[in-house]
Specification:
By secondary structure, this protein is α/β, with parallel strands linked by helices. It is built from 13 helices and twelve strands. Strands 2-1-3-4-5-11 form a six-stranded parallel β-sheet, sandwiched between helices. The chain has a six-stranded mixed β-sheet with strand order 7-6-8-9-10-12, sandwiched between helices.
Amino acid sequence: MKQHRTSLKDLAKELNVSIATVSRALRSSTEIGEEMQRRVKELAKKMNYRPNPFAQSLRKEAPKIIGVVVPNLVTHYYAAVLDGIEDEARRAGYSVISANSHEDCEKEANVVDNFIGLHVEGIIACLAQTTTDYSHFEELASMGIPLVFFGRTCLSDRFSSVTANGDEAAMMATQHLIDTGSRRISFIGGPNHLDMVQRRKHGYLEALRENRIPIERDLVICNKIDYQVALEETVKLLQREDRPDAILAFNDIITFAAFTAIKQLGLRIPDDVALIGFTDDAHAAYVTPRMSAIVDQSYLMGVTACQVLLGHIQGDTKVQKKIVPQQLMIRDTSAKNKK
């Protein structure tokens, strides 16, 4: 059985102090009193704490490191954002270390802890869908480690963020569905506590209100961001007698789950069910019928997030809120009355 390696977080928890206090005490910082230094060092010895040699090597050979944590590295969106971050970081002389939280809050907190141990200059993060406790991010502020969120954000009064105009884009997409003949439009999203879900759902609802279309709660599905879950939810939705005649899907995972469900049930796109998804343009253009999509400028989002972080690293303390516009690409899956 693999032995657990004692971390700074373990020591901090045992002493009921911050990770910052433990880190400074181990370095014999004058900011920490002699008694606390003694307690920390004694506990570190007792718990067999060993500094990470990889981290020490990185500090000697490449001290300018940025950490990036994303929920799902295999999707095109996060890969493109990471490309933008890496290119911008490289231009400024920084290296990038990325890690995958796998949409799990505990794993996300462990990644942040590891980045602290690596003495990164700053962190860029997109929240995992299960994250509702933000203490691991608040810890960064107490340690003076700059943090910028992108996509899914939190603690907006304390940390800078780079987001898309999801509310406006969702409103435009829903209006397009209405203008091309759809009336019972469903929104299939992710967990309601995510700000990204809230923005996109808000735009969808506003479009319905402006067109005096009744809002039906049964057509608004906000569940786990997972392909199988979204597939099953869409199938249930489409098997109803009063099924929707259009779907606005929250992201690429849910979009292609909905696309598959419609086809599995033998329904025609867009004649029976129109579909628009928030997804990347590369995949949307190469399915049949070609997907109407709300497309992120994900590479630009990565570049922008890195620029904001670099500003913080260089001493800018102002909280920044940047918006990277999305683009509505109309193709074949959405226009019912297209000739």
